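Problem: given the chain below (158 residues), write out its structure.
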Amino acid sequence: MTRVLVIGYGNSLRSDDALGLWAADQLETALQNQPEVEVRACQQLTPELAVQLQEVELAIFIDASIDDAPGVVNCRKVDKDAFMPTQFSHDFTPAKLLAFTEVLYACAPEAFLFSIGAESFALGEQFSPAVEAALPDLLSRVERKVTAALMPAAPKML
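Solution.
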């Protein structure tokens, strides 16, 4: 059973926005011996991902950030947004996707968004120097989070 779902998303033709896709590709190789982990790469978050999200204990999203300084690696816990089916659109954030999963399946996993502050979303297929330098740190942090999630719980002391 898949316990962890890693979703990297972005646009491969918009420089730093390809971060999530690139990270998913790297993590798929790095975590290939972990049958409890599934890694997905996608252009954008879509409602169909709710099917997989309702089956896991932990979801990790990876995307470029406009909110952080270029090259800064960040990890934020994702809380569900309020979701109204009448507000359905193609613009799904991790928080909206979790809320959508909750509405459909009455459950949603714990989730985190890992990001690197982007410097450029210009047309291109190269990362900016700031993002390029931060990539190893991002991968290391995600791998540590996945490893921690897969560790058996410590027995409770009586």
